[in-house]
Structure prediction request, 406 residues.
Amino acid sequence: MAAKIEQLSEYAVIRSLRRFRDRYFSTSGKVDNDVVDITEEESQPGFLDSLSVDVQFLIMTFLSPADMCCLGATSQYWRAMVRDPLLWRFFLLRDMPNWPSIDHLTMPQLELLDAPLVSENEILDDTEEEGDQGTESKLDYMAEYLKGCPSCRQKWLPSWPSYKVVTSLLQFLVPSSEPRYAMLGPGMENLDVSLVTRLMHAPDVLPVSGTPHRQINGIGSGISYMFNNQHKFNILTLYSTNRAERERARVQQQNTTNKLFTLEGSDNSGYPVYSLAPQVQQVCQVVDGFIYVANAEPGRDERESEAAQIRAVLSSIWGSTSRPLLVLSCVSREETGASRTASLETSTNRNKTRYRTPCVDMAKRLGLPQLANPWMVQDTVAESLSGLLDGISWLLRCSGVKLYSS
Prediction:
């Protein structure tokens, strides 16, 4: 069924583009001025315009979002062509599973994408254009794509003037508090590669700057790291139970009794409700943010309990909604060449098993769009720590740390 919907999606996009082309160019080969305002120079189709719609669509599937925008700037015809709503919805459905990160500002509206692109009756009926236009106008898919695509998001980051870069050298002379973050989650405990162990032995990624002697409510002081050789921050690791029980559960692929939380019951919708252990609650009240390590490998689905535990953590900070939540969507190792080839061969089927949960699906699984706090999901690999620095950079920015590019 998923493959059928995907085929219908491609057909619907080409059909929509062909309709526009037929309206744009008259049967004599000239532009229909009722469709768009056009200059005299564009009254005849160019070489690229004269290609079949199927070929034009194939070309556009190989272009990046920036290239698509450049193509739209070449003529009035392509400006309207690249803004076709069904085209950008197709790109969203195709590319979202491969996005390495998503946050509270760029999360697409998934409820509008879960429905089939168009109904089978609308596909077969080529005369009811008004019905199609009503379906297409529900959402600006191009804006949704450009908002969420990581390569486009990077261009939104502010570029700091040179004098502000110079002032960063003075930060060492000004005493500043060291941000502290509580890190927890099943991805710390049930992966084959320990993220915490790799983090402590990766000086090329995040050098350890020391272990402070102070303690936070008797639990421990955590470990301090140095980001970009400039900014110190502290991570306090909160495990669900002792090391022996964690290792036994990991080997036997079983769940442990999480001593950080107490199950209080369920709400009116039947979802579990948790409360924090008293000492953990005190820790959550004094840290500057949270790092939740989720297990993104296939076969792990504890969405209800995980989402409820995240809500318990955030509700423990006395109504503050400014403390950020970084979710590291973590797998043990990078995808191998063989598995990558296999995933590419089945990429048209959204229901096929992937080697990791896409970050957009992870955000939905953990109920992050319903949170008031700022949040981000970042794909991370425990063995190589890839993606970790991007997540830490976002977390520090949300904590008020000014990061200046060199």
